[in-house]
Amino acid sequence: MDFSFKKSSGFSLPQAISLEWLETNGLGGYASSSGINCHTRKYHGLLVSKLEGLPDRYVLLSKLEDIFFCNSDPYYLTAHDYPNFLQDGSFANLEEFSVTTHPYFNYQFEDIEVSKEILMPFNTNTILIKYSIKGAPVACKVTIRPLVAVRNFHTLCRENSDIETKTVDCKQGISFTPYRGMPTLFFQANTKFNFLSEPLWYRNFTYPKEKERGYEFQEDLFTPGIFTFELSANLPVQEIYFSCSLNENKQELTQIWQQEIERRDNLEATFTGTLLQKALQKTAQSFIVTTPSQHPSIVAGYHWFLEWGRDAMISLPSSDRYSGKEDLCLEILKEFSKHEMQGVLPNMLGLTPEQNSYNSVDTSLWFAWAVQQYYIKTKNIKAIAQYLWPTLKNIYLNYKNGTLHNIKMLSNGLLYAGNKDINITWMDAKIDGVPVTSRHGLQVEVNALWYNMLCFMVYLANNMLDSVKHPLESEISLLRKAFRETFW
């Protein structure tokens, strides 16, 4: 949703640090930080990417140390939290922080206005940062130090001797490959600069949100060197576009920026309804991704969720059906249905089918609910019959007769699942391999979903003239009575 905070309205430093912004690229990658670009989580970063052949995401470019110099006075445009010291990123000069099309930061240094904008182009592992300097009466400069982590987003980076410090020239920039087996990072700009190779480590960045959660919370970041951009005096506006990408950009950065802005504007023009409905449709786009195998999917959430079956099915109607993307909704349902095994759908999609996690009782039932929501909107029973009905029947028959994780239908129609050593509901936290909350047996919400699925299947079977309708009707009658007696 769009929002704007201004100094004139009492925007405070604690408030700025508590706010978070998010940019996504449709590939499962993102950029994110706080309202003063001070990372508060290990999951924050400017280029966090889903890499082919590797699980999870990777924080590649963590942040920048970008400084505006005027009359030799340095003004930091990114905040850093160190032990017992907060470099606040010139918060006293921050006039506005807003997120409309993308994150925007506006600073005032006496008569000079400096703005910083951050944009992640769609369908590419690239981050763009745009600086605009207005009204500089004297020659000024901007310096940029990329600070890289190159690590799994669940871990932290510490100073080490394995990192490669050599840089290589590329079109309007430099590149370097920090570690063997990791991608090359390309740093490019739209205008003339001087690059000074100065490899060094910045130590002990602090992430307070991780400290609150009881995790390791300090990190070292590496910089290959510093980019310097000289600015002339008395020009109305001077702009710097700076990028970090996993591929060398052959196109001008200004064109990439403009094309992405136009794409977002055109997309937003298709949203309908109230302001709230339009805002929700806009937000929903951030969660729809294309996997490395080129299949559509849904990210369960940011920052640390991936393609989780349960969460994908729960959010699918809101993300697609209510956004006018019914065809995409169907494609995602079809993709998940391909991974059904003995009636169980994966609670997490792996890089290969062999790596899928079949560890939940309710993902399959939420799948049935998502199909139901798709039907309510589209009435497309033909597509359901062709692509999804066989999966629904497999779920029903396997759950009825008994399948993985001791999932089975009892003689009274209720669904039983699990044992004391496993947790296959949404309450799935473990400590040392032991369930925190043991919920084996008869779970109320699982049986509510089971009842809903059976009722929906009766409706479909009646329209498809499928004989499975008859046992379903008798089981529903038993289940209705047993549910009241057991749970009410």
Walk me through what this model shows:
- The protein has 10 helices and 25 strands.
- It is α+β, with helices and mostly antiparallel strands.
- The protein has a 9-stranded antiparallel beta sheet, covered by helices on one side.
- β5 and β6 form a beta hairpin.
- α5 (309-319) runs parallel beside α7 (363-378).
- The longest helix has 21 residues, at 381-401.
- The chain starts with a strand and ends with a helix.
Strand content: 25-35%
Low-confidence stretches: none
Overall geometry comes to: elongated
Structural class designation:
alpha+beta
Q: Radius of gyration from the CA trace?
A: 26 Å
Summarize the biggest pleated sheet: 9 strands, antiparallel
Number of strands: 25
Overall pLDDT level = 93
Kindly, what is the distance between the CA atoms of the first and last residues, rounded to a whole number of angstroms?
Answer: 40 Å
Give the quaternary arrangement of the chains: single chain
The side-by-side strand order for the widest beta sheet comes to 1-9-10-11-12-19-16-15-14
Q: How much helix, percentage-wise, in residues?
A: 25-40%
Count up the helices: 10
Summarize the structure.
This protein has 488 residues and is α+β, with helices and mostly antiparallel strands. Helices cover 28% and strands 30% of the residues.
Fill in the keyword field for this structure.
488 residues, elongated, 28% helix, alpha+beta
